[in-house]
């Protein structure tokens, strides 16, 4: 267990591609931290630098106060779980688990003890004599975890460990991972692009984009107070609705939406509203007309896609930014309704928006204003 | 446990393929066999003829048209052949040379191939291109320089003269490099994080996973070395340093070509290769298939 520090770490590939840009991050002893971001945001590169698989272009990486920039992977005392598990195909599960210990010349009785301890924790007892090819995806995943656990390393590095599992197994393993961490309390750095994993697993999450750290904090804080448009659009599923708007004299106008936010400077802004903050309006409340396009009942809630007057703002977090400004002043927004409401396609529903639930960002810089 | 139940329901690829619709057959065998069978016969004919001749009398062996079913089997040709020339010595020489060459090729080509496949060093691409270029130079071109080097080293007319120039081959390095590059790099990274050194990764992870390629290289190298005639002809002079191929040729020329004995010698010289080929065939075929396609 250890404290892991990244201090102004930068990685440039082939003198051209800036993969990680001045990343500074301190992972506390026993903390579970998530690096999250869209593909190509530098999160895996950051993890690989921690593991010693990539050289650091500039900056320092330290574990427990010892700078490890030039320490080889084997001497860093960290363990890594790979996305494709990287189990040694020619070895049995037992030998896969024991490999790291054998390399470190741990006495064989101690190896036996630790392998059996870990295989018990992970329910691998029955599988020790099998080879990776004879295991299911979930079993392989647990062997990969086990291989990291037996080493009793200072820190765990996990690179999208659940992304190759089917949805049901992923939910199971997510809970299992959290339980394991609560039990063992090992410093863990977890890379994912899945913001559900990010929200549920981490003590803190670090949102990355374009190699830069966008925001760092406890998941709920990041969700409630995104510092910029990117984080607002990336964290949350379905994502936050972002509309272009204009502020004049403390009043924001976005299509039919009008909000009074006293003290706001005049200018172009982006307003953001979480889908769950959009509710059908009762009588007499100020409301925005909303036309239902697509209804997705999920059982406990209904996700409704529809249009309101206005123009979308891209956060850069979406895979594709919808074409806007083509004269059509309609913006697609998403709302989450109670399952008792049964909206149908074509319905026009007035939506109520509480001003205190609205995020406002500077349209030029993307930074949060409030 | 639910996860186990989940695992049981996962369909293995073999099952999935088995479910595919069965092809309608208009022959009890694949039509390809109509082409392959005659070809196989043509390939087998010299081998069969050689074996048959080795069991015939001199008269039968000279008869035209060739006698393909001898009147009686003269197994005595084999001991006669062994008596009439130092086959034992030549066999041993060939064995020493070939096994040394094969073992050293497996080791040295692995090391070099791995370096070219995975380690980033200055001039890697240029060195590799140079290595590939040497593959295109025929042996006849480098024959005389090689001879001069071997002579300068004081190795002329000795077994080391046959071994030294063949300890490592550009082909072997190239082939193993290609194969190593197809292995998932994460395995090696995982092993390095687990505490293995570069060499540890090579010997404990990469080589065990490269058995098909290693078997292929071993068989090819064995075949080349065992059957090599030209270099032994140049590099050794005394009969006691002859290899089998060289000996057989001399044997053939020094008598009034007593074909059954020559063929008996040839059959004996082929046996180790046949044994090795059949033993390694499984790997060999897979090795060629994988090394050829994934570059």
3D structure, described in words:
The complex is a heterodimer of chains A (370) and B (295). Helices cover 23% and strands 33% of the residues of chain A. By secondary structure, chain A is an alpha+beta fold. In chain A, strand 12 and strand 13 form a beta hairpin. The radius of gyration of chain A is 24 Å and the shape is elongated. Chain B is mainly alpha-helical and 295 residues long. In chain B, helix 10 runs antiparallel to helix 13. The model of chain B is unreliable at 1-20 and 290-295 (pLDDT under 50). Chain A binds chain B through residues 51-53, 72-74, 76, 78-80, 82, 84, 86, 88-90, 99-100, 103-104, 123, 135-139, 147, 151, 168-169, 172, and chain B through 1-3, 6-7, 10, 184, 186-187, 189-197, 200, 204-205, 208-209.
Helix/strand/pairing category of chain A: alpha+beta
Principal-axis shape of chain B equals globular
Supply the number of helical segments of chain B: 16
**CATH homologous superfamily of one domain in chain B - what is it?**
MetI-like
The total count of helices of chain A amounts to 8
Distance between the termini of chain B: 43 Å
Name of the top-level CATH class of one domain in chain B: Mainly Alpha
Mean pLDDT of chain A: 89
The total count of strands of chain A amounts to 20
